[in-house]
Every structure is written in structure tokens, then in C-alpha cells.
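Re: export button greyed out
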Amino acid sequence: MSAIPDSATGSSSQAQSTPLELYASYPFATDETYQQGLASLIAGGALDGDPPPDIKDEILRRTRVFYFNRVTGNSILMDEARDYELSHRESNDTGAGVISQPMDESTPDETRVLTFAELQELIETGKVDQIPNNKIIPEAINDATPSESKTPARKKPWEVETVEMAE
Amino acid sequence: MSGPRTLPGVLQTPGFAHYSLAWSPFHTTRIALASSANFGLVGNGRLHLVSVAPGPGGLPALSLDKQYETQDGLYDVAWSEIHENQLVTGSGDGSIRLWDVMLNDLPIRAWQEHTREVFSVDWSNIKKDTFASSSWDGMVKLWTPEHPRSLSTLHAHLSCVYQALFSPHQPDILATCSTDGTVKIFDLRAPAYAQGPGTNNFTHPISAAALTVPASTTEVLTLDWNKYRPFVLASAGVDKMVKVWDCRMIKIAETGNVGGVCETQLLGHEYAVRKVQWSPHRADVLATASYDMTCRVWNTSPAAGRAQLMYIHDPHTEFVVGCSWSIYEEGVLASCGWDSKLNVFHV
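Workaround output, generated via the alternate export path:
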């Protein structure tokens, strides 16, 4: 499971941030665990029927607030989050609040699936640093002691049948 | 087309296309999922561990328990048959890794012997300390978790070996399928080399099969042993057809024989078939997954007047590459594909 980013736990530079400010700056767009949870909710039909934008915003906000409270231990309320996002949307003109905060250009969006053509272009132009999910993974072997097996093997259904037939 | 439709439980893994899935032989509701970023062309792999629980309205609810990252894409996964927490993966860089699900991040063993993509891994259900790998380098290798090198190597084909599976009934019997259009059955106790056209023991050594089945004029991507009828197999591949082979004429003591009687052909998939798997509960039920974005269930010997096709699962929006029956819950099937979705449903 991914570690909690610094911005969520309140590193020293953000020690004075209020929970709502932390919420507003939380990197939902790049948090893989959040994105996975969101994707499975959507796959499960959370946004079926193409709800109007305000309803959709509200559903997405609820997922953010729930997730934010869970990983940071805060307990901000839906109403607070809504008020904060709406007031900031007007004041700083970023358009859509936290859901589409600008991405760092140099970091590929790990959750977006490139089309085959996009991928081909990145490979051919040598921009492999922009290919998502293409990072160096340590080759090391786990030096922790492997777990001990405690569960006896179970018979497969066809092995059970064979025994019954033999009797 | 026929059979009741039920909504699947779904788990999505954004950015990672699935290549294979396997149900734990110890824990009824645990699934392992092998996946690759960027269509498996470039980038990392990821092994996902998933739990299935009864959800609202009887719908299976899937949850992601844990994941492991790998340098290269993962093409197959097999659970250990002797250790409930361990499983093995095969990777695009030719490596094989053993994982302990009680530990995080890193594997507990790694082997690098294959020179090309490892496309299948299979754990023996009879010799429970042994597993096999098959690779695009034409080789099949046998391993145990404790041994730092492979136990033996079979020069199974001169081209890609897409799958190698142990017989569920006899130790030391293993079947393979390949780009070369054949299904082969090997007796692992008789590691002789074949003689004949296209082979020589210096530049192109090839292990002698007990039986070679000329299964297709094009690539055979997948096979499976029937669990209730020894030496009956299903195969499928690029020719879109699924075929059931009666190989009971095999003479284990001999090598070099060509045979196999095609009992049944199952027609209907519109593109290549990537996976076949027989039901663990019924001798005549087979699941198939295809690039045509469907997973299908067939009755291979229907009563007179009944159709072979029992069920079509079509919610996937990309290639379906894996399908597997729950081992202990009859009629529960899982499918996975390049849409990064794992679906679990009742047939």
C-alpha cells in the first residue's frame, strides 16, 4: 500500500496548515490508492446514469473527504469541504478545485492509460521518462524470514470425487 | 445468448493491464492477479492480491489486499500447493519470483535462467514442492522453491511455449503448447532428445515428447487438462477455435508418436482465444477467454438438441486474457483483461 504523502501528514513546512488546507492540497490526482478506490467505485456503478455536474461533484467530494479523513486521521465534514472548495474555486481561478490540480509536467500520470499511439510516440522520440509506470524497482530479495505454513493442503474437487468413487 | 446474466463484482487496477489470474488452493476467496503497465510493451509489472466477499444483493465485492511491484511486466502467476502464503510469478524479462504474502515489497526468491519472456508458471498439484515455467525461449523448466537453480530443462519447442501444465492425474506428465501449432505431452522421467528433420543435438536440441498433437495450423496459445477424464485436453489459439483432444492412445513408454483425436470443436469466438480452463467440478464444462472481449462457458458434450455455448460474459471493453474457475465454489468464474478489470461472477 502506498505511503501517506508528506503533504497529508503535515511535514514541518505545513505544520500550521489547517485540516481544510491540507485537504485542499492533498494530491488526490496522483495518490494511487485513492485513484484505485475511485476507479473501483466507478466500475461498481457509482456514477452510472451520468448524473448532473453538481451531483457528480458531490459524489466525488464524498470519496475525497472519506479517503482524506481515513489516511490522515482528520475528521473534516462534507459541508466544510464543500464551502472551502467553492470559495477557493472562485478566488484562484484554477477551474475545478482539487480534482484537477495541475500536474507536475515532469511526472507522468501513473493512473492514466496511454493509447498505443501515444506510447509508440514516447518510445520513438526517446521520452521514456514520460512513460507511466516505468520506474526502477529494487532487484533485492526480502531478507525478512518467510512465513511458516500452517494450513494443510486441501483436496481439489476432483480428488474428493475420486475418493468417493473408490469407496 | 443463453443462461442467466448476473452482474460481476469488479476490481479495476488503473494503468495495469491484466495477463493472468489464479485462485488460492488454500483460501476459497483469495485471488492473485498478474499485470503489466503499457500493454506489457514497456514498464513495470504488478502482482495484486484480491479478496472476494459477498456484497450487497449477492454481488461479489472485490477488494485489493496488497500489491507488489516488479521491474518488468508480469505474465502469469501460480499459487504454491504446499505453502498457503506463497506464490510464483513469471515475467517479461525472463525472471521468476517467489513471493510470501505475509511480507511486503520484495520477493523471497528470484531466478533468472530463461532468456525470453516467461509466459506461464504452473504448480504441480501432485508433486507439491515442484513448479514449472514455460518461455518464449522454447524451454520448459522445473523448479522447487528451495533450490537456487532449476531442477531440469526441457527443450520443448523450437519457438515460443505459451503454456506448460502438469497433469492433474499423474506425476511427471506435463503438456505444452506453442507457436509451432502443436500440443505436446512429455514424460519428465524420460528426458531423451528427439531425432529428425529440423533437430540436431548441437544447435537445435529438442526433447522427445511422448505424444505430439498437431492441434492447429497457427499458434496454440493455451491448453488445459480435463480434471475428470485423464488424458483429455482442451487447446485454443489464433485460429479462434477451441478443440477438445482425446489423447488416451498415448504410450508413455514411447516417444515420437503423433496423435490425438479431436473430440469436439467449439466455434464462436471472433478473435484469438487466449485462455481455456476446465471446470474443477464438472467433466464437460469449459471456460474460454478471447481477444474478442468475451469470456464464454461451454458444455463440451451437451445433451441432444442442446447448444454447446452455455454463457457469454461480455462487460469487458478490451482483450480478455485470463479466466479461472473458483476452485471450491462451484459455478463462480473470474475473468481479467487489458481493460484492467477483474470480474467475478456466477455462471
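Chain B has a mean pLDDT of 94. The button fix ships in the next patch.
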